[in-house]
Structure formats: C-alpha cells, structure tokens
Design goal:
The chain is α/β, with parallel strands linked by helices. It contains 5 helices and 9 strands. The strands form 2 sheets. Strands 6-2-1-9-8-7 form a 6-stranded mixed sheet. The protein has a 3-stranded antiparallel sheet with strand order 3-5-4, with helices on one face. A hairpin with a 5-residue loop joins β7 and β8. The longest helix is centred in the middle third of the chain and has 21 residues. It starts with a strand and ends in a 16-residue tail after the last helix.
Length: 233
C-alpha cells in the first residue's frame, strides 16, 4: 500500500505545480494521473497567463478586470488572492525555465487579452500551457527521490477515515486493471474540468469530471457547476 505525505490527483499545470511546491517543502509526494502528465489537458491552454507585473499596472486593476469580466459572479476573495500572487508566480516560472515571449528590449513581453484594461498577458507563442507543463515536469525530475509519479493510474474513489477525513484514494492501474489503495496525510484534487458532460465540446476526452464526482460522493459542496468555458468563445 503506497503511502505519502501529500497525494496529488491530476498532473496538469495545477497538479504538477502543487506537487513541486510540496516537494520543495520537504514532503514525500505521490502524483497520480490517468494519462502521462504531459498529455494533460493543460496542453490546450494557448493564449497566455495574466499578471500585473509591469510597474504601471496593479493587482487591484487586474482584480477589478477579473471581477467585471465575471459579471460580478466571481469569488472576489479568490480573485484577490490570485491577482496578488500572479506576478511572483510569473517570475518564478520564468526562473524555472519557461521561455516566455520577450520584446525588442529583451524584457518579458505582453499582449492584451479581452476584458483587460492593460496588456498583462505573458505567453509562449500559442503553446503557453504546453511550455509551462514541460518545464514543471522537468523540475519534478529533480525530486525523483521524494516524488513518486503514478502515470496512467485512474482514481475511482476518495478513502475516508472514521472521523470523516480524507486519508487516501482508491485507484486502478490502467495497464493491468489492478486496484490499489493509496494512503496520504493530505490529498489535493487537481483533476481538471468536466467538459465532456457537454456535446459537442472541444475539451479532451479525458475531461470527464472525475475529481468533481469523487468529491461530491463523499459530501463535498460544489458551486458554480453551470460555469463552463467553451472554445471558440
């Protein structure tokens, strides 16, 4: 029975970034993905990532644009946190090796996205998600002694202890169909979206809402389930 301090379910950008942070903090980490990590749907993120990094910009402006763009339906606490943290995260990713676009002066270059009052989108051509994902996967290689990668394992249910706390996950090895119980002190769900609920959809075939379903079955409260992003918009 595999045991880890932190178990991350999903190995797209969110999952790999969480696993890397946990490993940097000294935890033993298991990261489980039903596909090879670099085949995660974060591959489809093309346009860029927003941050108020320019001196003339501000996180407050970024936050307001985000709130306004959500038609005032967005979680404003979460939006504030995201916009405050975004500049440092862009710099961190750049230092890890993400080859963000540079302008003529050799500085990080930006472009404007819809709904933004400033050009604050940092990008890598039209493969931003893929570029970041490969860099994070490379970085995880540094922690091979403390990060175990379970690639092509499918999670079927969250394991709960007698106190009602999540203590692991039930998995199936896609290669041979065998079942395995993973134990963990903390479980992070980073399973992606549920675009395949809708037809037609441009979401990948793997976007089936597994994490949402597992959380719901153990009593988690879900919100904003009607909020689905379609492409092209």
């Amino acid at each position: 029975m595999p045991q880890h301090d932190v178990l991350v379910i999903g190995a797209g950008l969110a999952g790999q970034r969480a696993a890397l942070a946990a490993a940097e903090g000294g935890a033993s980490v298991g990261i489980i993905s039903k596909v090879h990590p670099v085949r995660s749907h974060s591959n489809a993120a093309q346009g860029g990532i927003n941050a108020a990094l320019n001196p003339e910009d501000s996180w407050e402006s970024h936050a307001f644009d985000t709130v306004k763009g959500s038609d005032y339906l967005g979680d404003q606490d979460a939006i504030e946190f995201m916009c405050r943290e975004a500049p440092d995260e862009i710099l961190h990713l750049e230092h890890l090796g993400v080859t963000f676009h540079r302008n003529e002066q050799g500085k990080l270059g930006t472009r404007a996205f819809g709904g933004a009052s400033a050009a604050r989108t940092y990008y890598v051509a039209d493969i931003t998600g893929q570029a970041i994902m490969h860099v994070l996967y490379e970085q995880l290689m540094k922690y091979a002694d403390t990060v175990a990668r379970y690639e092509e394992w499918f999670c079927t249910a969250l394991a709960m202890d007698e106190a009602g706390e999540c203590c692991g996950v039930v998995t199936r090895n896609v290669a041979d169909g065998s079942m395995e119980l993973f134990q963990a002190k903390s479980v992070i769900l980073a399973c992606g979206g549920n675009g395949q609920v809708w037809k037609p959809t441009t979401n990948a075939l793997i976007c089936t809402g597994d994490g949402i379903a597992m959380a719901y079955r153990v009593g988690a409260k879900l919100m904003d389930m009607e909020m689905i992003q379609y492409h092209p918009t």
